[in-house]
Design brief:
It is built from 13 helices and twelve strands. The protein is an alpha/beta fold. The chain starts with 6 loop residues before the first helix and ends with a helix. Helices cover 44% and strands 22% of the residues. Strands 3, 4, 5, 6, 7, 8, 9, 10, 11 and 12 form a ten-stranded mixed β-sheet that branches. Strands 1-2 form a two-stranded antiparallel sheet.
């Protein structure tokens, strides 16, 4: 392989990258649509072509060797260069071609302020030959993936900007504190709940970005559980044993079914600014540049709003929330 890189070698390297990304043979099986024994054979063929051992596998689990990590990094650079070539060649023909991989945090689809779907629609209308892959990851994972150049761009709420990344504002998401129907607060009017009461009960914190206190400096919560995504937080809140924050749009279905209610929204709700991120100093493919332009255009004036991450929401409670509070207090 070191003297001549053939198409077969490219295919073997793609299998290797899929194994590393999945974290082992078993996890890569579904992605590659191959049996573990076949995956093992292909990896052995790659090692034979390279003349080096790339990973340890077996009872000890899957782990890259030092040479395996180096080949993994070189493979990422190789496929990145191939994508750049395809994109430039396509641009010379007046077409956007190649691949576009975008990362996004979970539970953005029901947020009316998030126009990601509209942006993808705009992009595909002019880039029909681009293969789009959408990844759902935690905010810290998104930032690391963009820094490592595993993803060219990502979208999320990033509360501490990282050196080496460029951030562009997109939209704002409201975060509200909730309890489940089995919680003692559920039937208590907001007027009868104090901040000291809030601080005394079990709270679901977020397992990334420093937790809620990083977003609400000075907030006093007794964190006794941790959630790494919104579905996990909602599950713990619905247990009736914890209070916790959810995006308002995410909690709406449970609020409507009276399985959740908001707590002191006028005092404790806050906003998170969602941004797109790219790595500084890395040349953007024509496809990526076109998508980022469509992303900004889809969000329109929202993208021009100033950052309000962590800012409390000073607004009257919604009529639905007041009605639910009165109904809870009366029942």
């Amino acid at each position: 392989m070191l003297s001549k890189l053939a198409n077969t070698d490219i295919k073997l390297l793609r299998v290797f990258l899929a194994i590393v990304e999945a974290g082992g043979f078993a996890a890569a099986q579904a992605q590659l649509n191959l049996s573990p024994s076949r995956i093992s054979t292909l990896l052995a063929d790659l090692e034979a072509r390279l003349g080096m051992r790339l990973c340890q596998r077996g009872r000890v689990g899957f782990r890259l060797t030092d040479k395996g990590r180096a080949i993994h990094d070189a493979s990422l650079q190789l496929f990145g260069a191939l994508d750049q070539f395809r994109a430039r060649a396509g641009a010379l023909r007046g077409r956007l071609v190649g691949e576009l991989q975008i990362g996004v945090v979970d539970n953005t689809l029901t947020n009316p302020a998030c126009r990601l779907a509209a942006a993808i629609g705009r992009f595909k209308a002019r880039a029909a030959d681009v293969h789009v892959t959408l990844h759902v990851l935690a905010p810290t994972e998104l930032e690391q993936a963009v820094l490592d150049q595993r993803l060219p761009a990502a979208i999320g709420a990033f509360h501490h900007h990282v050196a080496g990344l460029s951030y562009a504002p997109l939209f704002v998401e409201e975060q509200t504190l909730y309890c489940g129907s089995g919680h003692p607060f559920f039937r208590r009017a907001d007027e009868a709940i104090t901040l000291a009461d809030i601080a005394a009960v079990d709270f679901v914190d977020r397992g990334y970005g420093g937790g809620v206190k990083a977003r609400r400096p000075g907030a006093d919560f007794r964190a006794t559980a941790t959630a790494n995504n919104m579905e996990a937080a909602a599950t713990l809140i619905l247990s009736g044993r914890y209070i916790g924050y959810l995006p308002t749009h995410c909690a709406a279905p449970w609020v409507e079914r009276r399985l959740m209610r908001s707590l002191l929204p006028a005092r404790l709700a806050y906003e998170s600014l969602f941004e797109s991120i790219t790595r500084k100093g890395v040349e953007r493919t024509p496809a990526l540049q076109a998508f980022l332009e469509d992303l900004q255009a889809a969000h329109g004036a929202v993208a021009a709003r100033p950052a309000t991450t962590g800012a409390p929401r000073r607004r009257p409670r919604k009529a639905g929330a007041r009605a639910l509070s009165r109904a809870s207090a009366a029942s």
